[in-house]
Amino acid sequence: MHMSHEALVFTKRVISQTSWLEDKKLHLVLDLDHTLVHTIKSSQLYESEKYLTEEVGSRKDLWRFNSGFPEESLIKLRPFVHQFLKECSEMFSMYVYTKGGCDYAQVVLELIDPEKIYFGNRVITRRESPGLKTLDLVLADERGVVIVDDKCSVWPHDKKNLLQIAKYKYFGDQSCSFSECKKKRDESEEKGPLDIVLRFLKDVHNEFFCDWSRKDLDSVDVRPLLKEISSRWKHKA
Q1: From its phi and psi, is residue 172 left (phi > 0), alpha (psi between -120 and 50) or beta?
Q2: Active site residue 211
Q3: What is the mean pLDDT of the chain?
């Protein structure tokens, strides 16, 4: 049984306002691929990168999976991802929204949220959303939702909610030699894109809830705030 549009809007508003009032939390929608992880089929690795398959057992940021899938793949966690999720969970109720399949999403979530502390069952995949991404599927008032994704084009109707992050690409550098790839540099933990986004989100959270007791719940909206803080950060840069 589907809710009417009016009932859905009302439900979203109640959920969000309860979260704002009781927990002082906004909602955060996170992409997976090229945002929190980079995944590649092992067969697509360049010769100079194939040594990485031998490092899987000795690294905490590199994983291999093939059970239930057509072929073996490698998953590389983005630097700072665990700390990012931990700190974001204190300010936001979080969703995963990926264009990957349900089984693949579960593999990644076993690595970044095995106890379902951060996302619970708030996971949207290609099965639920075969087309473009939309906040219609997120059970939260759009006025209190922030999206973090490396692609702007997949959110045609929700760009005002979007904070675009630099694309994470660890695999697939054809230009480096074997010796260079052995010394492959990764993003910084302390000053990389996830750290920058986290600091931005802290500003958003702090300013949204600033002087909260004086605000009218029907008038608050995170979207103008995202635009204002983005403009401020550009001037600082």
Answers
A1: left
A2: no
A3: 93
Q: Comparing C-alpha atoms, which of 49, 90, 72 is closest to residue 183?
A: 49
Of the candidates 23, 31, 136, 149, the residue annotated as catalytic is 31
23, 33, 186, 211: which is the annotated catalytic residue?
Answer: 33
pLDDT digits (tens, 9 = 90+) for 97-151: 999 999 999 999 999 999 999 999 999 999 999 999 999 999 999 999 999 999 9
Closest CA to 38 of 87, 81, 97, 85: 81
Number of neighbouring beta carbons within 10 Å of residue 155: 21
Active site residue 216: no
Query: What pTM does this model have?
Result: 0.94
- Which residues, 6 or more positions from 108, have their beta carbon under 8 angstroms from its beta carbon? 32, 36, 37, 39, 75, 98, 100
What strand order describes the sheet that includes 73-77?
Answer: 37-41, 73-77, 62-65
Task: State the pLDDT at residue 69.
Answer: 78
- Superfamily holding 5-236: HAD superfamily/HAD-like (3.40.50.1000)
3-state helix, strand, coil in the chain (%, to 5): 45, 15, 40
The model's pLDDT over 178-220, given as tens digits with 9 standing for 90+, comes to: 555 555 679 999 999 999 999 999 999 999 999 998 899 999 9
The residues, any chain, with a CB within 8 Å of residue 103's CB and separated by 6 or more, are 68, 69
Give, in degrees to the nearest 5, the angle at Cα 129 between 145 and 135.
Answer: 20
